[in-house]
Amino acid sequence: MIELAFWGRCSTEDRQDPEASRAWQISRAKALVEPRGGRIVAEFFDVDKSRSIPPLRRPQAALLLG
Predict the structure, then answer these.
(1) How many CA within 13 A on the CB side of residue 30?
(2) What structural domains does the chain harbor?
(3) Planar angle of CA 9, 10, 14, nearest 5 degrees
(4) How many CB atoms lie within 10 A of CB 66?
(5) What does the angle CA 56 – CA 26 – CA 24 come to, to the nearest 5 degrees?
(6) CA dist., res. 50 & res. 52, Å (int)
(7) If we measure between CA atoms, which residue out of 50, 48, 42 comes closest to residue 2?
(8) What predicted TM-score, i.e. pTM, was given to this entire model?
(9) Cβ contacts of residue 49 below 8 Å, gap of 6+?
(10) Over the stretch 14-45, which tens digit does the pLDDT of each residue have?
């Protein structure tokens, strides 16, 4: 079993529902990794202003990369 971390993001709360976005993204990630022997063991999810913000300036992505 390959243990993996999931990182997702969505736009601002007024443009996307963070819970719905996270649920969709984690579901897609699991569908991709589980058939190949992967298992998501940690989750990181940022709610940001723009997709152009670099990962190290996103709190959850920075935690994952650290």
Answers:
(1) 10
(2) 2-65 (3.40.50.1390)
(3) 150
(4) 6
(5) 110
(6) 5
(7) 42
(8) 0.84
(9) 11, 12
(10) 778 999 999 999 999 999 999 999 999 999 99
